[in-house]
Amino acid sequence: MHRDFPVHGSSRRLPAPEDMPELPPESAGRAVWIPSLVDVQCEPGFPGFPVRENATSLAAAARAGGFGDLLLSPRVDPVMDTPEQLSRPAALTGGPRLHFAAALTTGLLGAELTEVGLLKRAGAVALSDGGLPVADSVVLRNAMEYAAEFDLLVVIRPADPALDRIGVANDSPVACRLGLRGNPASTEEIGTARAIALCRATGARVHLTHLGTRRAVEALAAAVAEGLPITGSAAARSLLLDEEALDDGRYDTRLRLHPPLRTAVDRAALVAAVRAGTLLLAADHQPRAPEEKEHEFERAVPGSAGLRSAFGAAMRALGDLDVVIRALSTAPASLLRLEPLGWALVDPAADAVLAHERGVAADALEGHLLRGRVLATLPPDR
């Protein structure tokens, strides 16, 4: 067992030798048990989008990726904004534990606050904008004040709402060469500054998702050093991919993401911040159906699957199992106050190119060399 990181008091027993999975020959002697992974940004394809994903495929993706816990976005259909919506079955057969982030505002429309106290009583562990920035700062401040009162985590993607609607690629010479409309990095910088200011004013616990710019990460680090109750995460794929991945003339819609991939300098800043413990990592699992991606680049629906590739991407970019465990397991678990964790059996030294699997939502990292293979996943005891 890998013992460099605590397992938050877990009493979970490892399987008996006779129950161990059969290991590939090349993994013999390299396999190691680690705490199962925790995703703080999972947007499932169900309910409401059956062509994207179902409960069975989500459970399979989580097992394949080593994930034992998922924080689900409220951005489903219908939106998870009432206690009744949170009363859905909170378990997947053979899959991870599910935790729910309820909507900050009714319908995620950014206007009317949801019933925060009732949502917490119904099982919500966080409030979230579902990746849709709240335009009205007064509404966002009021939501944070209620969240602080009920001790709920506030999960938001920092962005200026008006600037956020512009463009489909990073606003840079790369986008110009490709003839794509640019999305400015300043949208994230403005959104991060606003979130930090409101965190300071309200005392709410805040988590910023989808961070991708150097200046936003620097602002987050300063806020953490100030002692504010704020954290942030980046998608694991963003440690390997930057805007240069688009510059091959193929207009690969697997790379149609929002927010878009930023510069190589930004990517290096993300890697450094994860190493320093400033940033957590997320799978940022947003499965999309083939028919949503089979368009010209600007019309393709943004998003990518991520559960299967997050561990391999993190290991490839960071090369340090201890750092990966902290960023993808123990730190997210601490953020969500999860206990105990499950286990994942991994070969941290296995190299493999991520291939597309038939019937599985496309992943932006398909065709890329990843490091580390998940051999088995034991979700936490429920």
Task: Describe what you observe in this structure.
This protein has a single domain, classed as Metal-dependent hydrolases (TIM Barrel, Alpha-Beta Barrel). It contains twelve helices and 13 strands. It has helices spanning 55-65, 83-86, 116-121, 137-149, 161-164, 173-178, 186-202, 214-226, 264-276, 290-293, 310-318, 321-336; strands at residues 32-35, 37-42, 67-72, 97-103, 124-128, 153-156, 169-170, 182-183, 206-208, 230-235, 280-282, 343-353, 369-378. The strands form three sheets. It has an eight-stranded parallel β-sheet. Strands 1-12-13 form a three-stranded antiparallel β-sheet. Helix 1 links the parallel strand 2 and strand 3 (67-72). It is globular and about 60 Å long.
Which of globular, elongated, flat, extended, rod-shaped describes the shape? globular
Beta-sheet strand percentage? 15-25%
CA-CA gap between termini: 22 Å
Instruction: Write down the domain tally.
Output: 1
Order of helices and strands: EEHEHEHEHEHEHEHEHEHEHHHEE
Mean pLDDT: 91
Largest sheet: 8 strands, parallel
Low-confidence stretches: 1-11
The CATH top-level class label: Alpha Beta
Query: From the alpha-carbon coordinates, what is the Rg to the nearest angstrom?
Result: 20 Å
Instruction: Briefly note the structural class of the backbone.
Output: alpha/beta
What share of residues is helical?
25-40%
Q: What name is given to the CATH topology?
A: TIM Barrel
CATH architecture assignment: Alpha-Beta Barrel
Instruction: Please give the number of β-strands.
Output: 13
At the fourth level of CATH, the homologous superfamily is Metal-dependent hydrolases
Tally of contiguous helical segments? 12
